[in-house]
Design a protein that fits this description.
This protein is an alpha+beta fold. The chain has two domains: 50 residues, Winged helix-like DNA-binding domain superfamily/Winged helix DNA-binding domain (Arc Repressor Mutant, subunit A); 82 residues, 2-Layer Sandwich (Alpha-Beta Plaits). Helices cover 39% and strands 19% of the residues. It is built from six helices and four strands, in the order αααβαββαβα. It has a four-stranded antiparallel β-sheet with strand order 2-3-1-4. Helix 1 packs across helix 2 and helix 2 packs across helix 3. The protein is elongated, with a radius of gyration of 20 Å.
Length: 159
């Protein structure tokens, strides 16, 4: 792990909520001139602390859709089967997130499709593809309450 100082942490906190901030505004907020601030930002990116920048969409205003969480179990618990399943998840655009779990289920998938029929066709495709999926449990999101936000840096770093 890279050693972070207060200014590095401040840069990360600001970017977590405002990824479109200008270099000058970021520098001002963390109390640096633009060049040293930019150097720190590049250092954080190069160290892999920043995975990327992107926009969050309000899908309700774009198109009808359904979000489904799927608890997935594999039939075979070998390293090769886990790798094959994980590789397959990257081929399905509708799978917007996938987490490997310890405990009862092997994976939790977050899937976004235009409707339940499209979701079921996707699951049928996955089952036909023989990617190791043996059982799955579907949980349909009825309303968003809180989405993925900025991580709690202060709590994680002991501030």
């Amino acid at each position: 792990m890279i050693k972070l100082d207060d200014r590095d942490i401040a840069i990360l906190r600001i970017l977590a909520t405002d990824g479109r901030i200008t270099k000058a505004a970021l520098a001002e907020k963390v109390g640096l001139t633009p060049t040293p601030c930019w150097d720190r930002l590049k250092k954080l990116e190069k160290a892999g602390l920043i995975d990327g920048y992107g926009a969050r969409f309000n899908l309700r205003k774009i198109a009808p859709h359904v979000t489904v969480f799927v608890a997935a179990e594999l039939g075979d618990h070998t390293a090769a089967r886990f790798r094959a399943f994980e590789d397959a998840m990257n081929r399905y655009d509708e799978v917007v997130a996938c987490w490997a779990l310890g405990g009862g289920f092997d994976y939790i998938l977050q899937i976004v499709t235009k409707d339940i029929d499209a979701y079921q066709r996707l699951i049928d495709t996955m089952l036909d593809a023989k990617i190791g999926l043996s059982r799955y449990f579907t949980y349909i999101v009825t309303k968003p309450v809180k989405g993925a936000g900025a991580p709690p840096l202060a709590a994680l770093l002991g501030d």
